[in-house]
C-alpha cells in the first residue's frame, strides 16, 4: 500500500484533523512516510486565517509539484483544510499537478478519495460540499504502541464552525456554521483516550465556549460548555483538562467558577482580546468592551491567582488610530499576559473588514506590530524569569522538540519546561525545580514524581 506524508499548517484544530486523517489512512492500510521524499502521497493541510498562511501553503505545493514532476511523477498531491475549503476548484485550476482538494467537512472521506484516484476510477477530485454530521465524523487518534513515543496529551474536537462573524475573520467561511457533538460522544472519546494512557485532553473548537448553545442549552445555571467540562473532568484516568479557543463572551460566572470547582481544569486561559480599544472592538464585532475583558481577567485571577493567561491581538485593523493602538498597548501592560500572539491585520476575502475604506498602510502595521511585540516579550520574559527557584508540576510529554537529549513537559499554567531525565518518564506527573528561564521556556531539574 502507498505511504503518506501530511504537512500541517495552522492551528491545533488542523493538527487534530491531520492526525485523524493519518489514523484513517493507516486503518485503510496506508503507511505513514517519515519524510516527504519517501512518500507516495503528500497532503498539505492548510490555514486561511491570514494571507501569509495561504501563500506559504501554495508556495510549498509549487515546490512539491516541481520536484514531483521532475523526479517522481507518480506521487499524488493534495490540499486539505481551510484553504482547500475557501479556494476549492480554483486550486486545481491554478496548480495542474494537484490531484485532490478536500474541504473542512470531508476529512473523513480522504481515504476513499485517494483509493479511487489510485484505482483510476477518478482523475482529480475536489470536494468542498457541506456534510451533515461532519462535526462528529472524526474520532480516530494515532497512539503509537511504544510508551516512549506515546503522547500523554490528546486533542479532542468538540465542535466545528463559528457564528460570531467577527468582521476580520474568514473562519465562518472555512469552517461553516457552529455545530456541536453531544456531551456523551465527547466523554466516550475521552474515556477511550484515558484507557489508552492519555492523561491530558485539550478540548478543541473555533469557539468552544459556544459549545452546545443551541443543541443542549443552559441547565441549572451552567452553560452547555461548563456541563461538558464537568463531565470530562469526571473521566477516570485523566489528570488535566484544557480547552481552546474560547470567546471572552463565554466567560460567565459559571465558567469562572469552574476554575475553582474542578481540580483537573488547568489554571490556564487563552482569551483572545484582539484589541484594547472599545471603538475597534465594536468595529470588529467582538461583542465585549475593554472593561468587560478586564473584569473577566480580574474574576479569573480571583478564582485562580496563579492562572497563566495568553491572548491573540490584531494590530492595524481598518480605522485603528494611534490612540486606539495605545489602548491595546495599555491593555497588554495592565493584564500582563504570560504571552500574546500579535498578528498584523490581513485582509480576507468576503469579510466585512476587507471592504472598510480606512485600511491602514502596511508600514504603520509593521511599526505597531514591532512596538506591541516588544512590550509582550518584555512582560513574558519577566513572568518566566519569576519562576526561577520555584517548584512546578509538569506532565512529561516526551523528548524535547528543541533538544532531543532532554525531556519536555508542560506546567498546569501551560509553560513548557525542558529538563534531563529518562524517556520512560513520558506520561508521568513530575515535580521540577526551575533553575533557568528564556523568553517563553523554563529549564529545570527533576525532584520527584508528583504525589497523585
Ligand atoms: N488578520 C490578522 N489576524 C487574524 N486573526 C484572525 N483573522 C485575522 C486577520 N484577518 C487572528 C485573530 C485570531 C487568531 C487565530 O488569528 O487574532 O484570534
**E-strand count:** 19
How large a portion of the residues is in β-strands, by DSSP E?
Answer: 15-25%
Instruction: Give the terminus-to-terminus CA distance.
Output: 45 Å
Strand order of the largest sheet: 2-1-3-4-5-6
**Which ligands does the model contain, each kind named once?**
5'-deoxyadenosine
> Mean pLDDT across all residues, rounded?
95
What is the SS-derived class? alpha/beta
Shape: globular
Q: Let me know the largest β-sheet.
A: 6 strands, parallel
**Helical content, roughly?**
25-40%
**Count of alpha/pi helices:** 13
- List low-pLDDT spans: none
Question: What is the alpha-carbon Rg in Å?
Answer: 22 Å
Write structural notes for this entry.
This protein has helices spanning 12-27, 51-71, 82-87, 89-94, 110-118, 171-175, 183-195, 224-233, 253-261, 278-283, 290-303, 322-335, 362-385, and strands spanning 3-8, 31-32, 41-46, 76-81, 100-102, 125-127, 153-157, 159-160, 179-180, 200-204, 240-244, 268-270, 308-315, 339-344, 391-399, 407-411, 416-419, 429-437, 441-449. It is of the alpha/beta class. The protein starts with a strand and ends with a strand. A 6-stranded parallel beta sheet has the order 2-1-3-4-5-6, with helices on both faces. A 5-stranded mixed beta barrel has the order 15-16-17-19-18. The chain contains 13 helices and 19 strands. Helix 7 (183-195) runs parallel beside helix 8 (224-233), helix 9 (253-261) runs parallel beside helix 11 (290-303) and helix 12 packs parallel to helix 13 (362-385). 5'-deoxyadenosine binds next to strand 13.
Amino acid at each position: 500500500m502507498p505511504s503518506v506524508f501530511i504537512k500541517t499548517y495552522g492551528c491545533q484544530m488542523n493538527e487534530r484533523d491531520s492526525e485523524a486523517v493519518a489514523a484513517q489512512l493507516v486503518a485503510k492500510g496506508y503507511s505513514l512516510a517519515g519524510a516527504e521524499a519517501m512518500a507516495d502521497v503528500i497532503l498539505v493541510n492548510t490555514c486561511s486565517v491570514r494571507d501569509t498562511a495561504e501563500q506559504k501553503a501554495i508556495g510549498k505545493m509549487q515546490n512539491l509539484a516541481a520536484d514531483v514532476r521532475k523526479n517522481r511523477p507518480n506521487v499524488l498531491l493534495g490540499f486539505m483544510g481551510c484553504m482547500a475549503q475557501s479556494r476549492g476548484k480554483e486550486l486545481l485550476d491554478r496548480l495542474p499537478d494537484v490531484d485532490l482538494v478536500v474541504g473542512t467537512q470531508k476529512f473523513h472521506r480522504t481515504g476513499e478519495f485517494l483509493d479511487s484516484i489510485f484505482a483510476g476510477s477518478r482523475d482529480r477530485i475536489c470536494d468542498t460540499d457541506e456534510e451533515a454530521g461532519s462535526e462528529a465524523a472524526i474520532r480516530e487518534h494515532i497512539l503509537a504502541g511504544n510508551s516512549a513515543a506515546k503522547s500523554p496529551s490528546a486533542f479532542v474536537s468538540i465542535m466545528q464552525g463559528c457564528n460570531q462573524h467577527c468582521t476580520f475573520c474568514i473562519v465562518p467561511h472555512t469552517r461553516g456554521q457552529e455545530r456541536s457533538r453531544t456531551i456523551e460522544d465527547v466523554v466516550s472519546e475521552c474515556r477511550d483516550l484515558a484507557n489508552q494512557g492519555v492523561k491530558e485532553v485539550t478540548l478543541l473548537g473555533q469557539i468552544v465556549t459556544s459549545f452546545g448553545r443551541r443543541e443542549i442549552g443552559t441547565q441549572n445555571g451552567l452553560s452547555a460548555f461548563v456541563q461538558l467540562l464537568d463531565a470530562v473532568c469526571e473521566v477516570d484516568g485523566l489528570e488535566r483538562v484544557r480547552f481552546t479557543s474560547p470567546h471572552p463572551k463565554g466567560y460567565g460566572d459559571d465558567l469562572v467558577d469552574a476554575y475553582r470547582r474542578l481540580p483537573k481544569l488547568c489554571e490556564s486561559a487563552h482569551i483572545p482580546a484582539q484589541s484594547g480599544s472599545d471603538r475597534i472592538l465594536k468595529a470588529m464585532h467582538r461583542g465585549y468592551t475593554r472593561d468587560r475583558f478586564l473584569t473577566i481577567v480580574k474574576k479569573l485571577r480571583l478564582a485562580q491567582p496563579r492562572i497563566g493567561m495568553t491572548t491573540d491581538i490584531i494590530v492595524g485593523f481598518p480605522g485603528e488610530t494611534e490612540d486606539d493602538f495605545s489602548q491595546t498597548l495599555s491593555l497588554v501592560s495592565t493584564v500582563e499576559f504570560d504571552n500574546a500572539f500579535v498578528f498584523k491585520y490581513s485582509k480576507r476575502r468576503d469579510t466585512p473588514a476587507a471592504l472598510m475604506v480606512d485600511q491602514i498602510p502596511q508600514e504603520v502595521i509593521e511599526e505597531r506590530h514591532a512596538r506591541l511585540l516588544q512590550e509582550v516579550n518584555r512582560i513574558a520574559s519577566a513572568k518566566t524569569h519569576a519562576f526561577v527557584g520555584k517548584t512546578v508540576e509538569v506532565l512529561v510529554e516526551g523528548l524535547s522538540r528543541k533538544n532531543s537529549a532532554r525531556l519536555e513537559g508542560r506546567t498546569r499554567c501551560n509553560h513548557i519546561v525542558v529538563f534531563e531525565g529518562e524517556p520512560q518518564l513520558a506520561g508521568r506527573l513530575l515535580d521540577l525545580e526551575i533553575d533557568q528561564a528564556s523568553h517563553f521556556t523554563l529549564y529545570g531539574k527533576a525532584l520527584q514524581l508528583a504525589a497523585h
